[in-house]
Each structure stands twice: as C-alpha cells, then as structure tokens.
C-alpha cells in the first residue's frame, strides 16, 4: 500500500466542555463519507480493562490518589489500548480517532497535578514508536466557559471537581505542547459554534486524505 494511503491516527484533546465527543462523532462520519473505515475510541478506556480503570480514575468518591498512581493507571489503560486496539486497527487499515491520548497525561498529570513532563516522557517512551498520532486536534477554550458547559451536562467527575487553577494549568500545558509540536498539532477555537468547529476540524484533516 502506498505510504500516502496508510491509515491515520488522530487524537482529540481539550478541556472539559470543549465538545470533543460530539466533534469526534462528526469527524468519524466525515471520514466514512470519504470511504475510510474508522475506529472511534477514547482514553482512559477503549478496552474492557481500560474502561474499568476509567471508572476508578473518574469516580468522584474514589478518594485521594497520589498523582503518580493516577499517571501509572492512565498508562496501564493506555498500554492495553495501544496493544489490543489501536495498533491492530491501524495495521488493518482502519483510521483511529481517539478522544484523548498521551498529550492528556502531559496536560492533566504533568500540568494539572504538577508532576512535570519527565515521568510522562518516561512512560511515553515505553510505548511502541508507531503509536504516535499523525495529527492532534486541540479544542481550546477559556477554562470558565468549558467548566460551565461541562457542569450543565452531567454530575462532575473527579477531574471536573478540581479547582479552576487546576484546569488553567491543564490548558497552559496543552498550549505549551501545541507550541512545541506545531507540525502535529492543530489548535482549534472551541469557543466558536459547533458548525465552525466542525468545519475547522475537517479542514485540518483534509490534508491527510
Ligand atoms: P473525558 O474523556 O470524558 O473528558 O474524561 C476523561 C478524564 O480523564 C478527563 O478529565 C481528563 C482525564 N485524563 C487524564 O487526566 N489523563 C489522561 O491521560 C487521560 C487520557 C485523561
């Protein structure tokens, strides 16, 4: 198969309330309209074990968890996801759309929990080199707007319950990642209306088709 036609790996990132989940569904339909077969999945999660770890990680009543424990559980779920789902899908020619991936660990555990980049980079280095997204769409919006949207939607999970300053560190860390990896990242203004966001995503993805 010519390299240009290989299946692509796209991750969606953003703060709570950025609209990732709806835009991911739109993007899946867009790609299928272009004849691609698509696996839409999420982190933490995607596998049976990963979804169980997600429950532990998100449960608001789970109680305190050391930041490094949280990071290790994220990567435990991720390793299952990569080896059992993501790489087999890419090998089978399916495009992979992932609602959050490694950059979320840099943003939430590295930035939000103040662990810094080093422990995240060590764990990232254990993943197979080809488990790297071709494109990361960062749906960026002001923290207060995102949290207001997320709180309208459902009861707050363990991360949504965090203070505004936590989410500000998460946003700053995402934007720093985007500046560091400008070839891979596309930052999209998620404060815009859903149709504008959808079109911006389609424009960013078109160059991979
Ligand atoms: P969401 O996918 O519904 O937004 O929820 C997942 C939550 O998990 C979200 O608050 C971000 C958090 N998270 C991390 O803290 N680190 C990670 O590596 C990942 C994938 C998610």
The CATH homologous superfamily is termed P-loop containing nucleotide triphosphate hydrolases
- Which strand order does the major sheet show? 2-3-1-4-5
How many independent structural domains?
1
Beta strand count: 5
Q: How large is the share of residues in beta strands?
A: 5-15%
Bound chemical compounds = thymidine-5'-phosphate
Averaged pLDDT, please?
A: 95
Number of H/I helices: 8
The CATH architecture would be: 3-Layer(aba) Sandwich
Largest sheet: 5 strands, parallel
What general outline do the C-alpha atoms trace? globular
Please name the CATH topology.
Rossmann fold
**Residues in helix, %:** 40-55%
The radius of gyration computed from the alpha-carbon positions, rounded to a whole number of angstroms, is 16 Å
CATH class category: Alpha Beta
Query: What is the chain-wise order of helices and strands?
Result: EHEHHEHHEHHEH
In whole angstroms, the N-to-C terminal distance is 14 Å
Task: Catalogue the unreliable spans.
Answer: none
């Amino acid at each position: 198969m010519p390299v240009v036609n290989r299946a692509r790996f796209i991750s969606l990132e953003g703060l709570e309330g950025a609209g990732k989940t709806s835009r991911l569904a739109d993007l899946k339909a867009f790609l299928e309209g272009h004849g691609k077969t698509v696996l839409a999945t999420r982190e933490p999660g995607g596998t049976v074990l990963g979804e169980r770890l997600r429950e532990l990680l998100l449960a608001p009543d789970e109680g305190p968890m050391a930041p490094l424990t949280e990071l290790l559980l994220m990567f435990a779920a991720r390793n299952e996801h990569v080896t059992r789902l993501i790489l087999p899908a890419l090998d089978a020619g399916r495009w992979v759309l992932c609602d959050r991936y490694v950059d979320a660990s840099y943003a939430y555990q590295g930035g939000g929990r103040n662990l810094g980049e080093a422990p995240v980079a060590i764990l990232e280095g254990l993943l197979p080199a080809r488990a790297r997204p071709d494109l990361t769409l960062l749906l960026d919006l002001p923290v207060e707007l995102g949290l207001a949207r997320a709180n309208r939607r459902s009861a707050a999970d363990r991360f949504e319950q965090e203070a505004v300053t936590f989410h500000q560190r998460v946003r700053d860390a995402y934007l720093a990642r985007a500046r560091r990896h400008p070839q891979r990242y596309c930052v999209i203004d998620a404060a815009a209306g859903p149709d504008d966001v959808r079109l911006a995503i389609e424009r960013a993805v078109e160059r991979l088709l």
